[in-house]
Amino acid sequence: MIVTWSQEAGDNLVDIEEFIARDSVDRAVRFVDALIDHAEAILADNPRSGRTVPEIGNPDIRELIYRGYRIVYRLNGDQIEILTVFEGHRLLRLNESGD
Asked: Is the pLDDT of residue 87 over 80?
């Protein structure tokens, strides 16, 4: 499976890294790199391993949780598109789901 990242997901990763970097630049870079590695390693071989996003109910829009962050992705044939990444306590807004 091919894993791609949407512009929104990339922008959110930059925001996450900038937020964590207020305390430690090294920790921020390590965290974002680990989040990306986690998502890509799991999804490349197990694309349905994440749960269906409860707010959406579409079995092709799923999410992984990584250290308190929701990684929302869409299954599309042999491609997986990471749609967005955000703090786990938030609900997904419909404009973040790619629909």
From this structure: yes
- pLDDT (tens digit per residue) in 45-56: 999 999 999 988
Enumerate the domain spans of the chain.
2-90
β-pairing verdict for 69-76 and 79-87: antiparallel
pLDDT at 92 over 80: no
Burial readout 33-64 (b: 16 or more C-beta within 10 A, e: otherwise): eebbebbeebbeeebeebeebeebeeeebbbb
Q: How far apart are CA 76 and CA 87, in angstroms?
A: 24
Domain boundaries 2-90, CATH class: alpha beta
Tally DSSP H helices, then E strands, for the chain: 2, 5
Amino acid at 91: L
